[in-house]
Design brief:
Low-confidence stretches of chain A: none
Order of helices and strands of chain A: EHEHEHEHEHEHHEEEHHH
Number of helices of chain A: 10
Strand order of the largest sheet of chain A: 1-9-8-7-6-5-4-2-3
Largest sheet of chain A: 9 strands, mixed
Number of strands of chain A: 9
Strand content of chain A: 15-25%
Shape of chain A: globular
Oligomer: homotrimer
Distance between the termini of chain A: 10 Å
Chain lengths: ~260, ~260, ~260
Amino acid sequence: MKTTISIDVLSAAIAAVRAKSPLVHSITNYVVMNNSANALLAVGASPVMAHWKDEMEEMTAIAGALVINIGTLDTGWIEGMKAAGLAASRRGTPIVLDPVGAGATSQRTNAAWEIINLCHPTIIRGNGSEIMALVDADVKSKGVDSSASSDDALSAAKKLASETGAVVVISGETDYITDGTEVYTVEGGDPIMTSVTGMGCTATALVGAFAAVVSDPMEAAAAAMAVMSLAGERAAANARGNGSMQMHFLDELYNLTPETL
Amino acid sequence: MKTTISIDVLSAAIAAVRAKSPLVHSITNYVVMNNSANALLAVGASPVMAHWKDEMEEMTAIAGALVINIGTLDTGWIEGMKAAGLAASRRGTPIVLDPVGAGATSQRTNAAWEIINLCHPTIIRGNGSEIMALVDADVKSKGVDSSASSDDALSAAKKLASETGAVVVISGETDYITDGTEVYTVEGGDPIMTSVTGMGCTATALVGAFAAVVSDPMEAAAAAMAVMSLAGERAAANARGNGSMQMHFLDELYNLTPETL
Amino acid sequence: MKTTISIDVLSAAIAAVRAKSPLVHSITNYVVMNNSANALLAVGASPVMAHWKDEMEEMTAIAGALVINIGTLDTGWIEGMKAAGLAASRRGTPIVLDPVGAGATSQRTNAAWEIINLCHPTIIRGNGSEIMALVDADVKSKGVDSSASSDDALSAAKKLASETGAVVVISGETDYITDGTEVYTVEGGDPIMTSVTGMGCTATALVGAFAAVVSDPMEAAAAAMAVMSLAGERAAANARGNGSMQMHFLDELYNLTPETL
C-alpha cells in the first residue's frame, strides 16, 4: 500500500476511530449489510442499519456519520434516504454517498442526483463507471462493475467534486480522492477483492467511520481507502478464493491498529 | 460456561431441538438473516424467514415458534410482525421478541411496546440498554450497543417481566433470565462476540428454537444462552478476528451435541 | 459427482461463463443475497441485485439472464418480479424461477404460478416438495425444506415441465433435470450442504449464469447442478461445520475451472 497521506496521519485516523467508536448510521443495500456492519465493528466503529423514514430524524441525531448506499434501491428506501440525508445535512453530520449502479439505469442515476442536490454529501465514493455516469448521462455502466479507464474517471471525479462541493473518491487499482483541485492517491489492494461482493460498499462504510472522527474529508477518505488496501493485501496472502478472502479481510481489519501498520 | 440450569436439562434441551427440528418462523432484520438461519440449522432447527402480511396466518400455522426482531424496521414490516404475532398468540405458539435498538429512537420503543401489548410475547431478549429503555422511556441507547450496568438492567428486566408476563433475557458478560421473581444466570462467552454483528439476534433466534421444544420458557431461554456462551468460548479459542469468529461460531454450534457438552 | 452431460459439455459451459462473464440480474431473497452474489462472482459471472419496479425495464435490458427467487416475498417485490419477468420474456432473455416455499403457504404457491403464467420462465428449480406443491395444491411443504421422495417429485417435475414449457430442476441427493420427456441426472454433493442456508438458492443463481451463455436449457441447468455437486464435495472434505462449509464452498467454486474439473 502506498498513499499520499503520511503514516502519521493514517495512524492517527485509525487510532481515532478505535478511541471514539463513532456510530455510523448506514442506509445500505441488502447484499452487503452483514459485511459492512462487521467491517465497521472490525475497525472499532459502531454500526446501526436503519432506513425507516419515521425514525430517521432521531437516528441521525445520535450518529457521527451517515452512509447512503443506493445498491438495492426502491421508492420507499429513497424516502428514508432523503429524510436521513436532510436531517444529517441540517446538523452538519458528515454524509457519504455510494451511487451504486449509477449509469446501469437512468432511475439510479436520477436517484443519486436527487440525493446529492437535496442532502449535499460530504464525500461521494464510487467506481470509475459510476462517477462518470453521474457526470455524463451517456455513460452506461454494466450493472455494478467498473470498466472505465482511470484517466477519464479522474477527470469526471474532479468535475463532480467541483460541481457538488463533495470530495469524490474513485476506487480501482489506484484509488483517487479529489476535491476538484487536489488529488490524493492510494495504491495497493489485490485483484481478488473484485471477486468479493460489496468490497466497494465496505470501502464506503469505512469512509463514513473515518469521516465521523477526521475533520478533513480528503484525509478521512484517503485513510479509509488506505485501510482497505492494506487489509486487502494482507488478507489476499492467505485467501484460497473469494469465500476465505471475505473472512480474512475482516480479520485483517480487526487486527489493523497503529501498532500493526 | 456456568449456568443455573443443570447439565441434564441443557443436554435434554439440545437433544430435543436436534430430534424435533422445529420450524422457527423468523421475522428478523436484513443484517443478520443469513447468520440467524445458519445458526438455527447448526443446532438442528429449521428456519423460515418470511414477513409478508398476507401469508403470516398460514406460515405461523406450521411453525413451532415465532421470532420477531425489530432490527431494520419500517411500517410495512410492523404490519407483518403484528399479523404473525396475533396468529401465533391465538394458537399458543411461543413468541420471542428482540427489541433491537429500543431507546435509540422513540419509534423503535413504541413499535416494541405495540407488539408486546398486541401479541404478548413469551420471551423478550435484549441487551441491558434496550430492556431499560422499554421500562423507562428516558433511557437512551446508542444505536444497538449496550452500555447499561447489569444491576440496573436486571431490575428493569424484573419489572418488564412482571408487567408483561414474559420471561425477560438480558445478554451481557453475565446473562440474566427472569420471570420477575426467579433469576437464572449464564456466565461465559467471550468479549470478541461483541465485535461480530448480530450475535444478540442469533441468541434470540436460538431462544426461539429452544422455546419451540422446551415447555418452560425460563429453561428454554437459559439453554439457548448457555449454548451461545459455550459455542462462543470454543469459537473464540480459534478466532483471529471477527471474520473467523463468525465462521467458527457456526461450526461450534454445529458440533454441539449432548455428547460434546 | 456423476452426471448425464459429458465432461466436454460441462467444461465448455464453465469456460463460457468465465469468458463471457454474463450479467445475472437477480431478484432474490434477503437471506441469501450475499452468498448468491459471491457464488456468481466465484464462477466468473457478474451479479446485479435489483428489485425496484421502476428500473426493471432498463436493468433487464443489460442482463444476460434473470433470476427470480420468491424466498422473502411481499406485495411490492412481486410487482418488481413481474415487471422484470415481462421485460425479460419480451426480450427473450432466459428466466430462472426458484419457487422457494411453494406449498408452505397458498400465497407462495399462487405467487409462483402468477409469475409462471405471466413470464414463462425458461427453467424452474426447486426441491421436491416445492415442485410437487406447484403441481398438486394439496401437497404441503414444511417451510423451505424438502421431504418428498424422488420418484413422486420426478413425476411432478415432468408434469410441470410439460404444462409450462420450462425445464424443471429438482435438487436433492440426486438432481433431476427434465423438459418433460428427457431426464438428466446429477449425483454427488454432500449431506452437509443441507445445513448451509440458501444452497438451493445458490444453485438457482448458478443456473442463471449458465443459462445466460449455454443455449440449451437442459445442458445449462445440468452444468450448474454439476458445478454445485463438485464444489460441494470438495468443500465438504475440509468443512468442520456449516460455517466453514459456506466459506469453503465459495473457495471451491472460485477454483473450479476446466483445468481443475
